[in-house]
Each structure stands twice: as structure tokens, then as C-alpha cells.
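task queued by scheduler; priority normal; single chain, no ligands, no partner chains; default sampling; output format set to C-alpha cells
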Amino acid sequence: METLIKKLNNLSLRKYFVVSVLATLVIIVLLSLFTIWGCMSFRKYLLPDSNNVFLKVYRTYEDGSEVSYSVRVKVGEEGAELPVITADDKAAKKPVETRYAIQRIENSVDSLSPKRKMAYHFCGAAMVVIPIIFSIAGILLCGFFFYRRKLLLPLGMLSEATQQILDQNLDFNLRYDSEDEMGVLCSSFEQMRLKLSENYSEMWNMLEERRLLQASIAHDLRNPIAVIEGYTEYLQLNLKKGRLSEQRILKIAENINMSAKRLDNYTESVRTLNQMEDIELKRQKISASDLLSDIEDDFKIIAQKKNIDFRISTLLSNEEICIDTSVLYRVLENVFNNAMRYAKQCIDLDVSLNGQKLLFAIVDDGDGFSDETLSEQRKLLLAKASEDGHLGMGLAISRILCKKHGGSLEIGNNEMHNAVVKIIFSV
């Protein structure tokens, strides 16, 4: 029984509606037939029996008087007998002549009593009206049953979910266990909610990253500005008194120039970051082996200039991938140049393809990322400026480009505490 109910609930709306209508129709027909049969039986009961007749006896006595009697009897059956009529008065005279007559009972409505006639007409009307009432009631009950069983719950869930979205609340679940059209609709609505939640989360993260980026830039800009202001005040105080040598003045001018260049680098980096959102990807099909061959040749030349051993390992076959090579090169160059700054002797590049994801892992034999950098990598886009004035914007730019290409960029350290940068591109 439970299996049958489950199968019925999983029927499509159209099939479930047809089954409901057919079941209602069968019930209406059965009830109507039973009602008509009952009414016809009752009407037959109300009418006189067509086999009954009136037997009339006419007696004529010697004095010329005549007496008649009427007796209701049933005839037509085998062995039917007429009643024997006897006089109660023993002293009564015997009739001279006795005649018999049979009168048929009129089998019509007009022969009924008023009460029976009313009951007869009522049954006739009931045979017409009650089936109509059954039909109307069946249609209403069928529609109510169909709405309650197949539409009420999912429509209520969808209405509540819509209100939740209007209230900007995406932290809910929409689950309707059915394989009919309403189940598919609820499933699609849930997928839409998940996508909205994902987009909302991404937008929130993007706004949060932008806020943190602006706060980080504002904080880091204070350093070169403070240096320039400090040197300016120092020169104003000491130049008039003639306490500064020419060599000291040149050194101060050099430091001010370096701070000004840092400000210029900050400005250029911020402009580059703002332009990242406007970049349009231009994917092209390219052989994976040809791409890796070009990357290996380019990076080996760069590594040889600083006497760094560059090694690449891959299990990729000669298959085609769809990728924006300019974006890929820009990310790899940023990360590789970062690794060059900290590598001691060698840099390793591991490449693999997992489904539709192209993975790069760049490992250098330097001292690795600091714990502070690793703990803040998901909060800040920018790393702190290093002692040589490098601003660390390359990773920020690379991370944005990876996201635009359907991938990601993660930093970490391996078991040897060497820096590892994992790059994922959707192909």
C-alpha cells in the first residue's frame, strides 16, 4: 500500500490529475447508479401490484334485494384459489342468484394516496437531482484533493522561500521530495538559491577584500609619506644652521627619491588592480604539450640569469586545452618572479590536469612564507612590503586573474618549509 501511494505521489501533475478525475468519475457513476436503483425500487414499492385484482360478488335474494362484496386477491400464480364467502348470520336467507366479476386494479400514480404520490414524485426528482449533486460535489472534491495533495505544500514552500529571498535571507533549505513537476520546480528554485547565495558570498568577499585592500594601501602609504615628511622637516631644521654635509644631503635626497618611487609603485599597482575587473578572457584551444614546452623554455632562460636551477615535471599528454594564454603567462610570471627573489638554488614546477582543472605548483627552496602571511592570506590581498621595497602586489593580481579564469591561487609551505604556490585554471 505504501509503495502504491509513493508511486502515485511521484506521478506527474497531468497523470495524477487524470487518475484523480477517473477515480472520481467511477465513484460518481457507482453512487448515481445505486441512487437510481434505490429510487426505482421504492417507486415500484409505492405502486399497486399489477397481479392483484378485485373480485366482486353480487348476490340476489328472494325478496329481490341485492348485496355486493369486493375482495382483493392475487392471481396469475399456479394453484391460486378464490376465497369462499360465507354469511355470518345462520338464519339469513340463501341467495337465489350469485354472480362474480373481476375488476383490474389501476396501476398508475393517480391511484395512489396523496402521501404515496408525493413520495413517488420525490423519488423521480431524486433520480435526476442526486446524480447532478454527486457530479458537482465530485468535481469540487477532486479539485480540492488534487490541490491539497500536489500543490498546497510546494506552493507554500515556494512562497515562503520567495519571501525569504525578498528579506535578503539566503540561509535556508528548500526540499520537496517528489519527482513531479512541482518537485522539479522546487529543485530548480533551490539551485537558484544556492547560486544566489554563492554569488552573494562572492560579492561580499569581493567588497570585503576591496575594503581591506583600501585599508592596507592607506596603511602602507603612510610609511613612505612619513619618511618624506621626516626628511623634509630634518632638512628644514638643519640646512639653515649649516649642519649638513653635501654627502649627507645627497643621501637624504636618495632616500626621498626611493620613497617617492615606492609611492609611484603603489599608485601603479592600485591602478592595475582596478583594471583587473575589466579584463575579458580570450580562451583559445592550444596543445598542452606545446604550452608547457614554451613555459619551460622561457622560465629556464630567466632562471639561468640568476644561476637558479629550474625543473619542470608533468604527466600531461598531447591534448588540447581551452585557456587564455596571456592571463596564464601573467600569473605564472608573477609567481615565478616572486619565487626567484627568495629561491636559493632551485625552483620546481609541477603541472597536472584533473578533469577540467589545470594545476600548477611552484616550489622554491627558500625560507617559505611566514606564519603571519599564511594566517592572513584569506583576509588580505596584499602582502606587507619587504625590506627591498617590493610591495607584494603580484600575488594579489595573480589571485584576481585566477578567479576570473574559474580557478584559484593558494599559498603554503611544504614539509621542508619551502614556499608552495598552487595555481588552478579552468580549462
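post-processing summary
- The chain has three domains: 2-47+113-163, 170-278, 282-427.
- The first strand starts at residue 52 and ends at 60.
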